[in-house]
């Protein structure tokens, strides 16, 4: 049962019409009346689900309209402060009155079709306000023209590069705001995405909501970047949400209140479309519903299109499911939804001394044992998920194991210890028969592999081959892995290693 009352100012999460007023409540539905202006005849209405309608409070200095009940003359004023169910309103000539909320009206977010009628009824404000605002408005228009209306990019705390400006310009100039940012690694996809997100927030300051879906190890980094570089510190966890891949329950909950979705490492999400495991394919369906529920979508991926054609098509399918069918046989071909900058001579100066990507093959002793032990645990978890119905939670835990299994084995050991602690304290997911033994076996082989240290030794050998004066930056998937690598290198090298 809704708590909304007739005459109350409200805002709908289902449209961008701005403020309206409750005209009537019918069970789980609400009739919202929007105010086009004093000169309009019948005012527009919308029938909306009650769960998508929320109360709204007028900001100070919001223009309001009041019709005198005796003379039926319209007056224009400014809201000052709300007191209970009333507002104190400032009218011309320093007249102040306190009026009930139900007696006030504010225009919806649609322009007047015929402003001459509005002027003829003299419900506009005095020239005094126009004269005061005009210089500011002229300055604002000049600034917007100077930055080609890309205020989100130029108001962010970032060092701008020419290729980033071009990508943001193309994205914002497209009436369909659904794109795959496919720049090569290191060219600043995060900055491009952040600038586009900030533009959305500036365009819809009272309505925007953004869901950012990223690999779990990158959540803290994304939150820091959004707060520091794109000034979203106050909006984090209020209107901007950073959620790890695979957290189905939270993804579905946040999707109800946002108008934009951003997915980092989108190729990881897209690979689930053709996974052998049913749980993975069901997870892709969650992302398909999520991306289909919003008008604004950004996918970030540096995976070359030719590397995994099926995965690339799945990403395009999330952008435009009608044009790019998931199981089509022909190659997807070029798409205007894909914005890409490749490393060229013109931008090589951004990478001084950086060599091309190379892959180091490492023969990790015990890796097969780890994978077999993990598969044994997965089989038990899959059976338990079918029994208790918590498929998404078990899938999320399995993905967490997979994320760390390719890093230092000590990180895997810590994740196993966390799960064993949950079992011991009867917290989180209920255990299944044999789970504790399967985890202890997995931890045993992980510790054995850690003692071999094959990955760390291969990394050390590569670093020792650098020329004098060359420096290296090492990225790790999570803090535990970073700590393990740092400690190993700090003890093995005679030079400074900064964590």
Mean pLDDT: 83
What is the structural class? alpha/beta
Task: Give Rg in angstroms.
Answer: 28 Å
Strand order of the largest sheet: 13-12-14-15-11-16
What level of helicity do the residues show? 40-55%
**Count of alpha and pi helical runs:** 16
Distance N terminus to C terminus?
54 Å
- Main sheet? 6 strands, parallel
Q: What percentage of the residues does DSSP assign to strands (E)?
A: 15-25%
Extended strand count: 16
List segments where confidence is low: pLDDT < 50 over at least 5 consecutive residues: 345-351
- Overall 3D geometry? elongated
What keyword list fits this structure?
alpha/beta; five-stranded antiparallel sheet; 16 helices; 499 residues
Can I get a quick summary?
With 499 residues, the chain is of the alpha/beta class. It has 16 helices and 16 strands. Helix 11 runs antiparallel to helix 14 (435-452), helix 12 packs antiparallel against helix 13 (409-424) and helix 13 packs antiparallel against helix 14.
